[in-house]
Design a protein that fits this description.
The structure holds two protein chains of two kinds.
Chain A: H1 13-21, H2 25-47, H3 50-66, H4 77-95, H5 108-111, H6 120-138, H7 141-151, H8 157-164, H9 168-194
Chain B: H1 12-22, H2 30-70, E1 89-95, E2 106-107, E3 111-114, E4 120-125, E5 130-133, E6 138-143, E7 146-157, E8 168-171, E9 174-187, E10 193-208, E11 211-216, E12 219-224, E13 229-233, H3 242-246, H4 258-269, E14 272-275, H5 278-284, H6 298-308, E15 311-316, E16 319-324
Parallel strand pairs in B: 7-8, 14-16
Antiparallel strand pairs in B: 1-2, 1-4, 3-6, 4-5, 5-7, 6-7, 7-9, 8-9, 9-10, 10-11, 10-12, 12-13, 15-16
Helix pairs in contact in B: 4-6
Classes of the chains: A mainly alpha, B alpha+beta.
Chain lengths: ~200, ~325
């Protein structure tokens, strides 16, 4: 069986977007099921409030789809969506006549240390978890899914291959690329979080 | 600050430990996700429709420019409409006066379908699977092998032996993948249980974050809103399946043997068919029927078809006993 959009390494995000613009249901399903939840988590980390998160993400997604034709694939789709979301959040705060809050891909509030009470270890664990989750959300969804299967569900490569509908060797290659991407993104976010 | 920022992921074990300590990413509230996804779909459908309209107008504009510049040729390019995608399902039964859909309608990929509070619909997918929608159900037929359930319940009879399945029912709480062959997926709108999966025959697998949950024949899996899973048993017949039986499309009996008809009754009602004796079982394979069961449930049809074939029957629990009619003494 031909692998779907999620597993097609040859199908980049620009192609996914082209598929969506051409009315491809499968491409839209990937966007809807993989990118929207990640964007929601991104917004929630920044906003906290659930009602507002839903409002902002819905507005972001609708506007992003409306201008989907302008996506060129130079940056990742998730990065592009996060940028759209940041604009939406900023516009929201402007509308409310409040100080525009800086929204970064990493959570500044956590990274700069809110000075909350409690053992340092607990704080570090929370920081670390936030960074891992943020990094996973920033990866192409099929990478983050494969990593979760591998390291959280502890599935053997054969099982991951079966889920991806690819040969074990291809699954291993995908995991290698996913690991490398995760390391890069995580390191980048960690450096950013450590900045004063 | 912490050491993980210096050399956090040197090896495989570090990565394993990091993921284990971080745990899973937080779940998005299903109601929020469903609302955003629905809005995204509406926007996307508009964008796609607008794109198609534009693609027809662009050649016309080019032709107009050419006409003005050269004033020699009048050329107009008309684009043939793109070929319609092959249908993914055909409507076999509609018990809902409010639905525009009617029996025989072919449904295109992506078609949404919703039944009213008293409505039921039966579909035949392109792959041959029978799919039924209970009252108050919203689904989207994404493709011939995928159906997204947004509310209510669907029942699937794939007609395939175990192991041959490919159909997937997706919900916001997880996907149910058919391993074969007859099962129900129900999204509950209230209460502690959010999702129920009942398997009448064969097996399915509920795929969600955290892995796969196999569900075997005679089993009911309940996924609570807090993510906990519990299991119970479900008989292949009885009130749990009444709506499925009520939504069964009629059967064309012309030329069908009595035994084939009774096999269908068994499949639809979940009841086992027993014959009074071997000779009667053999006879059932010889009797040819005529007509149709349209307008009757499978159980109602038994009360017409068997007496019409000179036979009687009794129902006891999960068994339908076919017997000869004896002359009164």
């Amino acid at each position: 069986m031909r692998p779907g959009w999620r597993e097609r390494e040859d199908a980049g995000e620009a192609e996914l977007v082209r598929g969506m613009l051409a009315g491809d249901e499968a491409a839209f399903a990937v966007f809807s099921e993989d990118y929207i939840p990640a964007l929601y988590r991104f917004a929630q980390r920044s906003l906290g409030d659930r009602e507002l998160t839903r409002e902002i993400v819905q507005a972001t997604v609708c506007k992003a789809i409306a201008k989907l034709a302008t996506f060129r694939g130079e940056a990742g789709l998730m990065t592009w969506l996060c940028a759209c979301c940041r604009n939406e959040i900023a516009a929201h705060y402007r509308r409310r006549n409040r100080a525009v809050r800086e929204v970064e891909l990493t959570d500044d509030d956590m990274a700069s240390g809110p000075g909350s009470p409690g053992p340092e270890q607990a704080l570090l664990s929370r920081e670390r978890a936030e960074l891992v989750h943020t990094a996973l959300d920033a990866l192409p969804p099929h990478y983050s899914r494969a990593l979760e299967w591998k390291y959280l569900d502890r599935l053997p490569v054969e099982e991951i291959a079966a889920r991806l509908d690819v040969r074990p060797k291809a699954a291993e290659s995908l995991l290698t690329r996913a690991r490398q991407s995760f390391r890069n993104v995580y390191a980048s976010f960690s450096r950013k979080a450590a900045e004063p | 600050m912490s050491d993980y920022r210096q050399d956090p992921l040197a090896g495989e074990e570090d990565l394993q430990e990091l993921f284990a300590s971080a745990g899973r990413r937080p779940e998005v509230p299903p109601e929020d996700l469903a609302a955003i996804q629905a809005a995204a779909r509406r926007e996307w459908e508009e964008v796609v429709a607008a794109g198609r309209t534009r693609s027809r107008f662009v050649p016309l504009a080019l032709a107009a420019s050419l006409l003005l510049a050269l004033t020699v040729f009048w050329w107009r390019r008309t684009e043939a409409p793109p070929p319609a995608p092959p249908p993914v399902a055909t409507v076999e039964l509609v018990k809902d006066g409010s639905l525009a859909t009617k029996v025989g309608d072919a449904l295109a990929p992506g078609a949404p379908l919703a039944t009213g509070e008293d409505g039921r619909v039966a579909l035949r997918l392109a792959g041959g699977e029978s799919v039924r929608l209970d009252a108050g159900t919203r689904v989207r037929l994404v493709s011939g092998t995928r159906l997204d359930l947004e509310a209510g319940a669907v029942y699937v009879d794939s007609g395939r032996p175990a192991g041959g399945g490919a159909l997937e029912i997706r919900t916001s709480l997880g996907s149910v993948r058919e391993v074969g062959t007859r099962f129900e997926v129900r999204l509950e709108s209230g209460g502690e249980v959010a999702l129920r999966v009942r398997v009448r025959e064969g097996a399915v697998s509920l795929l969600r974050r955290g892995g796969a949950e196999p569900v075997a024949a005679g089993e009911e899996l309940r996924l609570r809103r807090d993510g906990a899973v519990s299991r119970g048993t479900v008989a292949p017949y009885g009130p749990a399946w009444d709506w499925v039986t009520a939504a069964a499309p009629g059967l064309d009996l012309d030329g069908l043997t009595l035994r084939r008809y009774l096999d269908w009754v068994s499949r639809e009602t979940g009841k086992r068919i027993r014959y009074e004796d071997e000779a009667l079982a053999g006879q059932a394979a010889e009797i040819r029927l005529h007509g149709s069961t349209t307008g009757m449930t499978p159980e109602e049809s038994v009360s017409v078809v068997l007496p019409g074939s000179g036979l009687g029957y009794r129902i006891a629990g999960g068994t339908l006993l076919v017997e000869r009619i004896r002359a009164p003494r």
